[in-house]
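Here is the promised in-class demo. Please do not try to memorize the tokens; focus on the logic of going from shape to residues.
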């Protein structure tokens, strides 16, 4: 019997800013071109900004997907619907934004437990500190 190798699965966590989201999607597309399964975790508003790009990659046969998690901005004191840095109007709201972004760890942990195949690597933006905790818990390298 021949052994069957499973495709590697990378999970990408872009920061919620266009200058971070677009390059992370590009990295995901490059990985998917090399037979890597790619999951990009973001919020609904940010997903809508890159959905067409992801759809084209999927239509080309790439194993790439967007997973949307609710952004807890309201709990951090942000106006309803704020999910991207370009929607921030003050330094005070910027602090609230980063607080909200880094309080997504429980939702991400629940997601990570359900992902198949099991991810072998996390690529995350430096502003998303909670991803180190996720990587440590699941013993997955984070870059």
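The designed amino acids, position by position:
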């Amino acid at each position: 019997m021949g052994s069957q190798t499973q495709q590697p699965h990378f999970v990408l966590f872009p920061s919620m800013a266009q200058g971070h989201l677009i390059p992370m999607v590009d990295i995901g597309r490059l990985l998917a071109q090399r037979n890597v399964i790619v999951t990009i975790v973001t919020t609904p508003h940010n997903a809508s900004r890159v959905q067409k790009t992801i759809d084209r990659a999927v239509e080309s046969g790439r194993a790439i997907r967007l997973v949307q998690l609710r952004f807890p901005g309201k709990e951090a004191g942000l106006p309803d619907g704020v999910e991207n840095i370009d929607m921030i109007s003050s330094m005070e709201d910027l602090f609230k934004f980063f607080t909200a972004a880094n309080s997504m760890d429980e939702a991400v942990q629940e997601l990570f437990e359900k992902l198949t195949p099991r991810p072998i690597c996390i690529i995350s933006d430096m502003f998303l500190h909670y991803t180190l905790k996720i990587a440590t818990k699941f013993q997955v390298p984070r870059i």
